[in-house]
Request: fold
Amino acid sequence: MSQMSKGRYSGAEIDSFAGDVLRDGFCVLPEHFPAETLRAWGAAFAPLLAAHVAREGHLQNRGSARYYVTLPFDAPFADPSIYEDPDVLALVERLAGEDFTMVQLATDTPLLGSAYQDVHRDTPPLFPETGRETPPYQLAVNFPLVEVTRENGPFEVARGTHMLPRDEALHLIETGERKLEALTMRLGDVIVRDVRALHRGTPNLTPEPRPMVVIGYSRRWLLRPEVTIHIPRHVHETLSERARRMLRFNPVVESLDDLPATEIYQAFAY
Ligand SMILES: O=C(O)CCC(=O)C(=O)O
Reply:
């Protein structure tokens, strides 16, 4: 991607993070985003979560007491310092190729009463008939809006499972040959992951919600219609050229008020 502004990491360091994702299925950029930005997101997210639970909590769209909520592409969430972060974009470009697209801005939040999810991927394989996996084509950038401890529902992931056929990888986990690792996180830590790395949500045993943001980036030719970012026209007018290009498959709308309220991304586990 042209005109990438300067990030914290050198090209060699980005290559090294990309190598981690190719080998392990994920990497963590430590304390990458400013804590005060994430606290502001957390405060703005709390009423959105409450409204979601009141409106469609009965759908239990990610299991008991666990909710997937799309973020409105407006302040404070439509923040280019986050979704155009130069290090994250450099890493995404290394992994998903030039001219990748941004397809998703949402959250996963377990509450008290949530359970272990089934171990899953977030995408089916591109060519199921081959029984083989391909290089990465869909990435998730995850960061929590609170500290993630062992008690409040850490994301668990099994290293090096993204390139294995799903059943083989699941078998390795069942036999204990491949362990699920619980990723505790500081506010500001960022996970960049290949969404095929087998993972699951775990129970939040505390009374405080544990929101985790997910920004999805895909290869230039891949469209996942389950996820969409509705871009209000007034925000679209402020986007950088790069952001317009990256967001090109998403609809521009006059107002976010007229959208159907129910989350459409209900089938999420592969
Ligand atoms: O929020 C989490 O810890 C994981 C959620 C997840 O993997 C999902 O709902 O697909």
